[in-house]
Amino acid sequence: MTEPFVSRGFRGRRQPSAVESRLPPGQYETPDFPVLSAGPTPRTTLQTWDFTIRDRNGATARWSWDEFKGLPHETITTDIHCVTKWSKFDTVWEGVSVDTLLAAASVRGVESAPYALAVSDGAYTTNLPLADLTGGKAWVAVKYNSLPLTPEHGGPARLLVPHLYFWKSAKWVRQLRFMERDQPGFWESLGYHNYGDPWREQRYSGD
Amino acid sequence: MDEDPGKRFEAAGEQSDPTRLDGNAAAGILSEIFVSDLTVARATCANCGTNRALGALMVYAHGMGTIMRCPNCDAAVLRVARTRAHLQLDLSGARLVVVPSAPAPFAT
Amino acid sequence: MDSVLVPPRPRTISWQLATVVSTTIETPRARTLVLQVPGWAGHRPGQHLDVRLTSEDGYQTERSYSIASPPEASRIALTVERLDDGEVSPYLTDVLRVGDQLELRGPIGGYFVWHVALGGPVLLVAGGSGIVPLMAMLRHRAIVLETGDARMRHNVPARLLYSARSWDDVFYRNELTQLARDDETFEAAFTLTREHPAGWNGFRRRIDRMMLAEIAWPPAERPQIFVCGSTPLVESVAAELVELGHDPALVKTERFGPTGASA
Hints:
The structure holds three protein chains of three kinds.
Chain A: E1 28-29, E2 50-54, E3 60-64, H1 65-69, E4 74-81, E5 86-97, H2 98-107, E6 115-120, E7 125-129, E8 139-144, E9 147-148, E10 158-160, E11 173-179
Parallel strand pairs in A: 1-5, 2-11
Antiparallel strand pairs in A: 2-3, 4-5, 5-8, 6-7, 6-11, 8-9, 8-10
Chain B: E1 21-22, H1 27-30, E2 42-45, E3 51-53, E4 58-60, E5 66-69, E6 76-82, E7 87-90, E8 94-98
Chain C: E1 16-27, E2 30-36, E3 48-54, E4 60-66, E5 76-81, H1 89-95, E6 101-108, E7 122-127, H2 131-147, E8 158-164, H3 173-182, E9 186-192, H4 209-215, E10 224-229, H5 231-243, E11 251-255
């Protein structure tokens, strides 16, 4: 069997990381913040933006931008891991915990379910078990590095679920929809892993 | 639904996405699946009915997969991702794909 | 109806190894690589190929590069512009040398293609490295017209509008000015956006509607138009051409992404 071809003198952009133990398997650390896009960048104005949580019966809790601003916000410092192999350490976000949102939704009669589908402007979707959105594991983030989230990085607001591969942190998120049964989202329906745990290297279905 | 033929050429500005490419950019990965050059094939968008050559679709190909979108309504017409041992192709956004071929023998 | 070439008999395109035969400095930031590609079955002007680099630990990355050489040439040429923070272009411009092998596949992409049989007039609009596929078209045109009937050239008049930062950043500078001198049916206009040499008589600004109106044929002539360069430039130019009345079906675009050069 012939040896695979190697391009003489090519290293690529990756730098070896000094903190290997913080890296999930197969990842490398980047100082950049790459922007991956699957479609045009939505440009929703704050006047038209709202965030809703909706259950299977159609009961809805809704916040306008001003109402959302009135909710308690937290600052989150976390590592993030993209399935395309870059990881970024100590990213700083500000947002509302999904626990807070779910509690408020529950008061308004929205019934939870085992699974949720995050739905974004531009028709992007991603699915998560309820258990991965609760217990202090998920936020709807509106700031990155103390500045309002730019459209390129998912602004006005994106989901932030850093314990899973970053495609689960849906940019331009507008709705969480409760589902009785799990339903694969945009990438999950195209061969990516349904759950996406970077520590078990669950990049693709079957991993 | 109306197709605005100039729509894919909205003047660059706030709405322009500097990272998007033309259908040509997907030709390489499509050549791993199709024997014919699909960029000269025509697709009908299942969402709005626009009929264009795939070379005229907007391509978003940064990272996780290659997404070809309708120049009129931005719906995903064709999606392809490379997983560990497969290429996964979703053509559900195309109602019909018409590929030029050599005429059949004895065709009048 | 988009005018496209019916493709030749279909065949699969596989990765193969080419050998670098020579390299030429085009501009301070750009280099032309001439490649020997075994079994190359020919290409159409405007097509590109994909290049794949592999590091020793198995990491791979791919980029597309337009073919600069015409189908009539015996070897394949690529012109690569170095992006300072690029991952692939600095390798191709600074590290790759004569005798090295390069993994590639092609030719790819029958949509952004022009050749003499498609007729004219043809308007080519280039921003920066976007000139590369258009140069393949112009080189092909020059060879075909040289060997053909003298009247043929009047059937395929061509005009080029080429935007670059400075005169030093113009690829194929001498070849283009020579071509325009020798062939009355080819006109080249340059616009330099950042600096220009003393005595410069050409345009000195980004391509805009007025410039296009001046250079392009009237829409009634139905020129085939090819626009190539960075995504913002291509979108702006294409939008202006449509505003001027050109049929969008006759405007073919090849966006190179945010910077106009493959990273």
